[in-house]
Design goal:
Elements: H1 2-5, H2 15-29, H3 37-44, H4 48-56, H5 62-74, E1 82-91, E2 101-105, E3 110-123, E4 128-136, H6 139-142, H7 145-151, H8 162-175, E5 182-185, H9 187-190, H10 193-201, E6 206-210, E7 215-217, E8 245-246, H11 247-253, E9 260-267, E10 270-283, E11 297-302, E12 312-316, H12 324-332, H13 335-346, H14 358-383, H15 393-398, H16 412-418
Parallel strand pairs: 1-5, 5-6
Antiparallel strand pairs: 1-3, 2-3, 3-4, 6-12, 7-8, 7-10, 9-10, 10-11, 11-12
Helix pairs in contact: 2-14, 3-4, 5-14, 14-16
Length: about 425
Amino acid sequence: MESFLEPILPLIGRLERRRWGAFYVQGLLLEGGRKTAAGMAERYGGDEQALQQFVSQSPWDWSPVRRVLAEQMIRAASPRAAWILDDTGFPKKGAHSVGVARQYSGTLGKVGNCQIGVSLNYATDEGCFPLDFQLYLPEKWVDDPERRRKAGIPAGVTFKRKWQIGLEMIDHAKSWGIPVTVVVADAGYGVTTDFRAGLRERGLRYVVGVTGDVGTWRNQVTSEPLPAYRGRGRPPARQRLASPEHALEIAKALPADAWAEVRWREGTKGPMEGRFAAVRAQPSHGHVRGKVTEPVEWLLIEWPPGKSEPTKFWLSNLPESTPLQELVYWAKIRWWVEQNYQQLKDDLGLDHFEGRSWAGWHHHVTLAMIAFDFLVMEGFRSKKNFWVDPPTRQERTATGTADPPWLLPDLRQAGHSARHLT
């Protein structure tokens, strides 16, 4: 643990902050009740007021911490990876926690009083960990000066939709030099034309979910946008486009031999497999204005045996030569994120923060990311000898490089939890 924290804690600031940072991370890892500052201080002998001040009011910048944490994790992970963009809900009572509002949460499966956090994650066959996390602010928060003041929301923070926050985090990760093979997201992001365009503008490959009512052409397609018609009345015949079909309609019209059984991974209860088809198609956004605005790409479809119709759809700009197995692999790698959210919340208290401030939320989430990444790293170590064991405390003491005695007495549960993360 000391070795893992060594490059990270100095970024938090002076020695007192480092001590409380290490205390907080270890408190998140240990078994107990809710992972609040008050609860951890009571259970493990800390100063509640000092711990609250460290998390909610201390001015340390979380962005450099996340960058060094990501760089440390990337050195242990495979470069064949997906960046998974997703979001999760933090159920809340009251109206004062920063960003809280009645809004839809996939965690709740309905509209409820909650905060929404958007995350960018790095996923490989061996494991998955968050690179970045940002709080989504509803417009009524952004436009309320008094709420902004009380929550300490910086002046430069403006309203952004979740997909815009996602692109911003992708830009940050790219600036850190983090490698990426493909960007993956569910239909909450994939149905947005501007989001897909933003990925293409950044030169990124993607496999993103869409809904069955997304309009596409399968036969009449072109790689060149048609000029916009600016006259009156109906556009001339040369600019008329055939009516697009819904993705669901295309899927139902496919012949039986277009479908294939694909196994994408081995699960704990056996192989994960399904029935898929992939066709070349062109999203029809802009056709009502006599324009074609998107390129030809893959439409991937899943139709589980026994179901009356296809259930899932994805668009992908992976090369035309990409095999069906590869498309399915990237579409399905998103399973990691749902598992990670559960671990972060159930075991590490990701959604236990009771403070109300903008900085406090991002500090708490950053410390939870550190704790989670430590467990993922231990899981990596249990699978392969990628990392020379760090020197023991006694060895570092003998050479004069020992750190302060930050470790809490019992971290055995951390090793147990690590086995469930990879």
